[in-house]
Amino acid sequence: MKRTLLGLSLYAMAMSAAHAGTAEVTWGDVDEFHDVRAAADERPGYQERLVNELTAHFQELATTLPEGYTWKVKVTDLDLAGRLDFAEVGSRTKQVRTVDDIEYPRINFKSELTDASGNVVEQRSVELKDMRFLDGVSRASRAQNERLYFEKKMIRDWFHSGEGPKKSS
């Protein structure tokens, strides 16, 4: 078992070395975005955690780009899946995020991809929305409670589709 895990780890490192693109992610004024509000229990530092987590997600995706490529992303708007509602929890009423198929995730960003020589391969504005984000998502997978699951999946699906960053000029 240990040898198998070691082998898989070495393979993963070799594959990430073969693709070593990077991402530079910047954010517009998060306070002006459509919906990045936190439920009551998540307020302190919520926006900072959200920005850090989605930045890390963009950076992780960029590692699959060819070596030397840089993907510059400037997030200009974000609308999280769901909406904030009030719910009774015990004897208290508190704000919780309710996810249904009406309030789908959306993100807008500017994308610029440069190759190892610094030549711009692609530059464009991207507007993503996933109106079918709940299709095919089982309760079990949602129960994993991965923060920003729907937003990350939307970005990942776009990135790996033919619509994501072009990898050659």
TrEMBL record:
Keyword Signal in annotation: yes
Signal sequence, renumbered to the chain: 1-20
Keywords, in A-Z order: Signal
Protein name: DUF3016 domain-containing protein
